[in-house]
């Protein structure tokens, strides 16, 4: 067998399958209660509306040609215009020229990594942060440092200490962060912008879960606050990532980047080289579905996920030992649990699968330095309250026995 490692580019050394993914393959077994996958409940997919939109598009000769032909790299203009209005409602005034359609927001992360990161650049992320963002950025060989903000003791001065090179960007999820589920208050967003301004740091705002708010008040997107300060988004140093994966369906793979026009122009070139364009058929379907039912559909899924979030919080409070703590998210799909220092999340997962048939994701995967070994992520999106209660009871009994 050839050892291909010598032939690969240096960036390939950072592309490693995690041991956790291997463990999570066991989840197909039907008797396991899984709190692992951060995925939407397929029972809630608007399948009929998607079929109807698809038939309407393909049943019309002109629209079918547009849907099935090569297309421009920027994305389907009516969808970009619709998104510009959607963003305006969130307080982000922009035009279609500020928007690139991507193959899910995951591709947006990759494209932004490609555009901004040279090998050995430093980028700032939350500690913990979204595992998929680390994977996307890793390919461009950065170093990571901690983003200023809640849970971080970093100050603008600390990034300059010892003549360190200026960080290239900060990556942040202000709404229902993956993996902790927590959100930033308006004051925290403003403080982050202040700190970013002090070190001239562009920010990437990932809003993957923004439709999934169950209670509390929504603070403005960081991009809206930055645009207000700068006199419009073309002068602000924020890039915003949106997606329909959690609000409608993930499989059509439609996400978007909102950014200053100059940045979009570069990203369009990256898209051209990498992807040519996102599927026009999928863009047209999602445009139609989003325009007709985004509001009613997201209300429906919020009502269901809220019940599950409440059920998990109630079960945790009822069953967990006193030496563990957890977040109380206002939305999203995740609750983040901190265990005593002596417990390793990956080891606990092994035992949870073997002994009590419960799964979750060990927290260390979400830390750029693989620290946080005594943390785990629990997702409540896929299970009914009774199953959630049973799973949490089993996990609590395991923890009490350790
Ligand atoms: N950002 C975050 C925070 C996520 O959790 C996910 C998916 N789990 C993504 C981006 C990527 O989602 P998609 O590519 O489906 O839009």
Number of domains: 2
DSSP strand (E) fraction? 5-15%
CATH domain class of the largest domain? Alpha Beta
The backbone outline, from C-alpha atoms, is: globular
Low-confidence stretches: none
Rg result: 21 Å
- The overall average pLDDT, rounded, is 94
What key phrases describe this protein's structure?
402 residues; alpha/beta; Aspartate Aminotransferase, domain 1; Aspartate Aminotransferase, domain 2; binds 4'-deoxy-4'-aminopyridoxal-5'-phosphate
If you had to describe this structure to a student in words, what would you say it looks like?
Helix 9 links the parallel strand 6 and strand 7. The protein has two domains: 139 residues, Aspartate Aminotransferase, domain 1; 224 residues, Type I PLP-dependent aspartate aminotransferase-like (Major domain) (Aspartate Aminotransferase, domain 2, 3-Layer(aba) Sandwich), CATH 3.40.640. With 402 residues, the protein is of the alpha/beta class. The protein is built from 13 helices and 13 strands. It is globular, with a radius of gyration of 21 Å. The strands form three sheets. The protein has a seven-stranded mixed sheet with strand order 2-8-7-6-5-3-4, with helices on both faces. Strands 9-10-13-12 form a four-stranded antiparallel sheet, covered by helices on one side. The model has no long low-confidence stretch (mean pLDDT 94). The structure holds 4'-deoxy-4'-aminopyridoxal-5'-phosphate.
């Amino acid at each position: 067998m050839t050892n291909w490692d010598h032939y690969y580019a240096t960036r390939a050394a950072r592309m490693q399958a995690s041991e956790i993914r291997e463990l999570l393959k066991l989840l197909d077994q039907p008797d396991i209660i899984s709190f692992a996958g951060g995925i939407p409940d397929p029972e809630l997919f608007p399948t009929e509306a998607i079929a109807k939109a698809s038939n309407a598009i393909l049943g019309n000769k002109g629209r079918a040609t547009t849907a099935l032909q090569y297309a421009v790299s920027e994305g389907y203009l009516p969808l970009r215009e619709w998104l510009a209005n959607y963003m305006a409602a969130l307080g982000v005034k922009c035009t279609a020229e500020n928007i690139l359609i991507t193959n899910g927001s995951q591709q947006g992360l990759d494209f932004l990594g490609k555009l901004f990161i040279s090998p050995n650049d430093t980028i700032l992320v939350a500690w913990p942060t979204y595992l998929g963002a680390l994977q996307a950025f890793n390919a461009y060989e950065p170093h990571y440092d901690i983003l200023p903000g809640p849970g971080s003791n970093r100050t603008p001065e600390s990034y300059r200490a010892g003549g360190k090179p200026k960080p290239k960007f900060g990556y942040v999820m202000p709404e229902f962060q993956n993996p902790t589920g927590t959100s930033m208050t308006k004051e925290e967003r403003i403080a982050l912008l202040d700190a970013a301004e002090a070190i001239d740091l562009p920010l990437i705002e990932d809003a993957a879960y923004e439709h999934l708010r169950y209670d509390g008040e929504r603070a403005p997107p960081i991009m809206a606050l930055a645009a207000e300060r700068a006199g419009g988004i073309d002068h602000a140093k924020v890039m915003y990532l949106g997606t329909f994966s959690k609000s409608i369906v993930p499989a059509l793979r439609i996400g978007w980047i909102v950014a200053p026009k100059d940045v979009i122009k570069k990203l369009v070139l990256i898209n051209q080289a990498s992807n040519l364009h996102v599927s026009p058929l999928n863009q047209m379907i999602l445009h139609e579905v989003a325009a007709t039912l985004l509001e009613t559909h997201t209300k429906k899924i919020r009502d269901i996920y809220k019940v599950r979030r409440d059920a998990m919080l109630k079960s945790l409070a009822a069953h967990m030992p006193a030496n563990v703590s957890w977040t109380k998210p206002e939305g999203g799909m995740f609750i983040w649990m901190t265990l005593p220092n002596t417990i390793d999340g990956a080891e606990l997962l092994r035992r949870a699968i073997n002994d009590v048939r419960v799964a979750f994701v060990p927290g260390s995967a979400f830390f750029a330095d693989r620290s946080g070994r005594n943390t785990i992520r629990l997702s409540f999106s896929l299970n009914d309250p009774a199953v959630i209660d049973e799973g949490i009871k089993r996990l609590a009994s395991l923890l009490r026995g350790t």
